[in-house]
Amino acid sequence: MTHSLKLLRSCSIQNGTIQVDGTNVFAGPPATFAAFATAAFRALGIEYPKFHKMDNLAKLGFLAAEHLLAGQDFRAPGLAARTGVVLANATSSLDTDLRYETQLRQRLASPALFVYTLPNIVVGELCIRHGITGENLLFMTERYEPAAQVAYVANLFAKQRIDRCLGGWIDLLGQEYRAFFYLVGPSSEAALPYTTANVETLFIS
Fold this sequence. Notes:
The structure is a single chain. With 205 residues, the chain is an alpha+beta fold. Helix content is 36%, strand content 26%. It contains seven helices and eight strands. Strands 1, 2, 3, 4, 5, 6, 7 and 8 form an eight-stranded mixed beta sheet that branches. Strand 1 and strand 2 form a beta hairpin. Helix 1 runs parallel beside helix 2. 37% of the residues are buried. The model has no long low-confidence stretch (mean pLDDT 94).
């Protein structure tokens, strides 16, 4: 590779606020995630009816990716398959699992909700929305482990499996939620190098 790996952009969502590269770009009603997500989606000014059918974890990922990848087009020939998604979370799809269990007890189980009882569905939704067909997966970890993720993603680049990658953390249970996404790729620009220390600093800032 002629250019070193750089952190090209980052997005963080928590406590009713969305930040892109450390700058607040949206603040909505923090009382419930549902109210916040609806307001944040409307603020995007886009048409995507499927958003309203997603579970909360997928909505969180959708909002983070929309802000992170604004202006990016991965559907160009050769680019879709060279873009990866590597995420992690702690609670899996438990938020939706609990809702589905309640429906089962009431004998009202919905197939539309059942499809979200897998944590990697959020990755699938992001790939569909942005036309990404490259390497994609979601790790389950008790807490965010930047070192392991950076090593894994860097290895994908070293093996020339991808040219760009969306990485980060996404977790939601009840009204507790946090998304931290970043875009990494080779660049000669004056951006932060893709290192564990830099990813950790962005995550906790």
